Amino acid sequence: MNWREMVSDKLMSPAEAVSAVKSGDVLAIAAINCTPFTLCQALYDRRAELSGVRIDHPAPLFPWIREGDEGAFTLHDLYATPADRQMVNAGRVEYRPVARWKSGLPPDGFVDRPDVYMLPVSPPDKHGYCSFGPGVFFSPSFCRDATTVIGEVHENFIRTGGDNYVHISQLDRLCEAGAPTGVLPVAPRSDEENLVTEVIGTLVSAELINDGDTIQIGIGTVASAMGAFLGEKQELGIQTEIITGGVPELVRQGVVTGKRKTRHQGKVVASIALVPEEEMAIIDGNPAFELYEFSYVDDVRYLVQQDNLVAINNALQIDLTGQVAAETIGSTIWSGVGGQTAFAIAANYSNGGRSITVLPSSSLVEGERVSRIVPTLPGGAAVTVPRTLVDYVVTEHGIAHLRGKSLRERAEELIAISHPDFHAELRREGRRAFSIGI
Q: Which of 152, 193, 241, 327 is flagged as catalytic?
């Protein structure tokens, strides 16, 4: 039977589907690369007839709050993106810094039983099951608990193992997608940034990763490229929140096998796949890949049971004591916490685990070179990972080992891997800020 015939009683236009939303409702919406753009646009088109609609949309790629269109929606977010970063910093989006993830529960401060949940899904298979495609997020819980569930059907969605499915009996309304779900935009790297990333990736792989380790890779500009540098290792495992580019190819090559994983042995476990189209094809239908709810894959209680867990994540800035700012630049909110804090905690308590922070030593800002390693974090900066949880910091100038080091020793390690142009300034300002002999 054609899938449209299977769901003919639920299939309708996007406008008809979102007519279920009423003024005063609370909505939850799937995030990042599973943003249901067709449904979002149809609902946005109704803004003049709605009021007091609360939208819980973590990491949205759809711009809900725009100049001149105030009133209909209030947006609650936990990870700023280019679609709403300006409005987050203008105070017109309710930004929630969330770092605690507990399996089966929504993010702190987000509704657990929304009036409406909107998400993209695959067509149903012959058994009536749809896939959540490349991102599970909180979909299993919201599909179970929301009063009304509206699905946007994407015929190209992948299927994986894990919790990546929902039966059509749980979907109240369906429409066909008129636009792709999109991907989180990543700024292209310059030639200098590519060289820096290559040096950092080579250092991390050669010096800090062992055969058989289980790896988490974050989505920062440098961190997300780490999969490309692990090809010489053996029997690696992946336990992460986001499958990044290069990881599916490592599975295809037999580098990532998961044989030595403590939990989910032999499986690549994540909640989201953010990879190029050719690597998405490797994941599709491959029993090695399992996608679960975000709150499960980032739950510290389970992560600490994974031996030799190595967390690799980005920093925007890091101070001379090892405090990592990864979500703000000063008081400006740039992204969000995501799972970075949770994985840093878990890597510290995992048997044989390590927490690794990667960043370029400097950046060009309006043509001027600035150090990413700073004496103290600027005013208003959020500490995403406290210095007590940072084992290694890696730049293109080397590796700083911070575990068990004094303030003076930490400062010495970090100055040694900073850009040479800033060594003298960092020593001078470090002495002034911390009264230590460096």
A: 241
